[in-house]
Amino acid sequence: MEKSEDQTDEDETEWESSFADPVPFEASGAVSGQNLSKTPTVAPTSRVILHFDLDCFYAQVEMIRNPALREVPLGIQQKYIVVTCNYVARQMGVTKLMSVVNAKEKCPQLVLVKGEDLTHYREMSYKVTDLLMSYCPLVERLGFDENFMDITGMIEKRLAETSDCDFSFKGHVYGHVSAGVKASDHPRLALGSHIAAELREAIQCKLGLTGCAGIATNKLLAKLVSGTFKPNQQTSLLPENIGDIVGCLNSLRKVPGVGHQTAKKLQALGLATVKDLQHFPVNNLVKEFGGPTAQRLKSLVLGVDDSPVTPTGAPQSLSDEDSFKKMSSMKEVLEKIQELLRSLVDRMQKDGRQPQTLRLTIRRYTATNKWFNRESRQAPIPNHIAQKIASGCKDDAVAQLGPLAMKLFHKMVDGSTSFHLTLINVCFSNLQSRAAASSGKASITSFFTHSNATQALSTQRQEPSSHSTNLQLSACSTITQPASQKTFTTKDPFYSDLSLYGFSRKQSPLVAVEGSPHQKIACSTVTHDGTDTTVTEQLLSNVDPEVFKLLPKEIQMELLSSPSTDYATLVSPPELINVPHTTESKCTESLKDVDHFNVVHKEGEQLECSEKESSHRMAETSSSSGNNVFQEEILVQSSDCAFPGNVDPKVFSELPLDIQQELISEWKQKKPVFKSPSSRKPAKGMMSKDRKAVAKNRQANSLLKYFKPG
DNA sequence: CTGGGGCCCT
DNA sequence: AGGGCCC
Ligand SMILES: Nc1ccn([C@H]2C[C@H](O)[C@@H](COP(=O)(O)OP(=O)(O)OP(=O)(O)O)O2)c(=O)n1
Ligand SMILES: [Mn+2]
Ligand SMILES: [Mn+2]
Asked: Where is the composition biased (Basic and acidic residues) (predicted)?
């Protein structure tokens, strides 16, 4: 969400003139130059990237929980601010991140729902990510309500399978009247728009959520374009219009990756708009930011971004915090810390991993500048305590973590003098899988001294190692199933073949569950009976069998389970039954359900998401650029982004989904595998070297991690 | 009358 | 341990 200062939206006034001045050619050369230097073993091609952003996310979740709220102006309140609001409220002038007082002033009838507890939002957030991942594993989260997807592989496969190029874009096309755009000129993006439409439809059908999507050739552009038409619409960006969308960002702060501090530095250099930066000599930028960052900034404002879609995996940290006007007694502090710890331990337990580090953060009261003075202290969590967390001895764990947290507190605050706190945050980090944790302090990898086997073994997987309660709770993706028909609602020729994607029997496509809303359906977890000796020797041929035998059973299971892990998905919607009664939200399982390979095409119905082809924001007016500084990124292979070596994205996409996830996890040194907030990622805590190396090679790190690589 | 989360880099 | 970025 944008800060309020950024919310004035003047895009429309600017974009047509964005081509007036050519910008130096050199700036766009980096990407193609780099890729040209590679061996052209893979057909050079641009990527197709999707960006999804849910509509008024917290408000939508609350409206699902209580449908009566749909018709009233609704604001989600955290302390004294309205963090977001539904579109009814927006129509009446309420904005995101508005103070409560201000919002009530704008809209006295505003209904406020407390939103300090993020549990429901977090859960829904992961359901969306899991759903997307079930189609294609290349999904990267950004915040709770956004996901990037690299569907290049899916596109290539589809393109090879069909010769039918007589179709149009789904949704809007930036800078055009979409009906007037020939999809045959941009078949890959056009296909992407169809996939985006279907994924949005799936999100609405299965989860009851609406959102926007952007379809473009990189993450930066996909994100920028997704917000063009707002709510519940999608927009594609053609290469010829890259200059338009970037050029109309008159405030540099709107460029993702340019935050408050960077914008201030730029402004000190006299740079306020994107065009200013486009024309600014990179050399003068280097002085202030350093070479790599300078170049990245230049690239960003040209719409160039070859950062990969990096599968997010399990979270690296879990934190819980509370703010208040004043806290000044040790008793309050202790009670607050214990309260936060109880909640955190609860979440940790469901995650199934063990935190190795505890961090305590405080904010002291200061009259001015209340929000930039945080102090923190962290400490290792003794193993015996960590195990209580994961094993479910909640009260026990809290009882032991409390004193540890208080020790950290006293490193910052002298209890014998007066203090005035306005915030306390408790954070678990350095999260390790049980297998890794139980094998000692080091990761599993340490068992194999000269292991080149680690790659094949996927030693860093993080899923729970046994079929414990944790596994059942976390491995089950809970998806709601509308009781509505499964009728196919389009005769779009591309949909039928989409059913081939993302499907894998073992993966267990989203299971439809009908019944009581609050009924929890147990997971039918298919176990990997990997204790078979022959299997062992096959899979672990590079592992010393003597060493292997010494490993705890759970770890053996871990090592054996990687390439062929079976798992079943499970379904149950705790409170999600209220799928919007909108008649147009029919759910099709076309991409997923194996039993529906023979898709029923129902004539006459359209799969439209009530996209008003409104012509607001001028984005529909066509403008062709004369000069083009904004060259399309060509030669950007997915292998540069998500795959090691020269892996053909098309071939990759044809692999069974679970295999895709395994491979990705190995390449990333993480193990998402199970679809849930837990078990997504391995602790790369101690693996930071590996992780860093990976990130560096992929250009995923550094300042503009969000968009531009180095 | 300015939340409550996350991520990565230094 | 802090800083900057994202939502
Ligand atoms: N500084 C911020 C920004 C966002 N959020 C939360 C509240 C939002 O509901 C959610 C998603 O942020 P968005 O910027 O996408 O805003 P919305 O989804 O609420 O609205 P929109 O429909 O404009 O996307 O993240 C937050 O707590 N603090
Ligand atoms: Mn968002
Ligand atoms: Mn949103």
From this structure: 605-619
Residues A280, A271 contacting (CB under 8 angstroms): yes
Whether CB of A506 is under 7 Å from strand B: the answer is no
Identify the helix (H) or strand (E) that includes residue A57. Answer: helix A57-65
Specify the number of domains making up chain A.
3
Give the domain-ending residue among A382, A416, A435.
A435
CA distance A107 to A91: 10
Output A537-541 pairs: Cβ under 8 A, ≥24 positions apart: A539/A456, A539/A457, A539/A563, A540/A453, A540/A457, A541/A453
A62 CB within 6 A, ligand 1: no
Residue nearest atom 10 in ligand 1 by C-alpha distance: A57
A208 and A285 share one domain = no
- Among A219, A248, A277, the domain-final residue is A248
Q: Which ligand is nearest to the Cα of residue A83, counting in written order?
A: 1
Q: Whose CA is nearest to atom 16 of ligand 1?
A: A1
User: Is 90 exceeded by the pLDDT of residue A515?
Assistant: no
- Structural domain range at position A291: 249-306
A234 and A346 fall within a common domain: no
- CA torsion through residues A330, A331, A335, A338, sign: positive
Q: Are A107 and A96 in contact (CB under 8 A)?
A: no
Is the domain of A264 the same as that of A238?
Answer: no
CA of A618 to the centre of ligand 1 (A): 24
The mean-pLDDT minimum among A7-16, A263-272, A636-645 falls in A7-16
Point out the nucleotide closest to A143 (alpha carbon to C1′): C7
Provide DSSP, A251-293.
SGGGSTT--HHHHHHHHHTT--SHHHHHHS-HHHHHHHH-HHH
> How far is it, in rounded angstroms, from Cα A478 to Cα A511?
9
Chain-wide mean pLDDT for chain A?
69
Interatomic separation, CA of residue A110 and C1' of nucleotide B10, rounded (Å): 44
Task: In whole angstroms, give the CA distance from residue A56 to residue A352.
Answer: 31
- A125 and A224 share one domain: yes
Cα separation of A290 and A288, whole Å?
Answer: 6
pLDDT tens per residue across span A195-208: 999 999 999 999 99
Summarised one tens digit per residue, pLDDT across range A324-349 is 999 999 999 999 999 999 999 999 99
C-alpha dihedral (A678, A681, A682, A688), degrees to nearest 10 = -140
Nearest in space to A262 (alpha carbons), one of A228, A234, A300: A300
Q: For chain A, what is the radius of gyration of the CA atoms?
A: 26
In this structure, what CATH number is given to the domain that contains residue A147?
3.30.70.270
pLDDT for residue A56 is more than 60: yes
ipTM > 0.90 for the complex: yes
The residues near A361 (Cβ < 8 Å, ≥ 6 apart) are A321, A374, A375, A376, A423, A424, A425, A426, A427
Is 0.80 topped by the overall pTM? no
The 10 Å CB-count burial string (b at 16+, else e) for A402-427 is bebbbebbeeebeeeeebebbbbbbb
Smallest CA-to-CA distance from A352 within A668, A658, A671 is with: A671
> Cα(A388)–Cα(A398) distance, rounded to whole angstroms?
9
Domain assignment present for residue A382? The answer is yes
Tell me, yes or no, whether A84 lies in a domain: yes
Count of other CB atoms within 10 angstroms of residue A449: 8
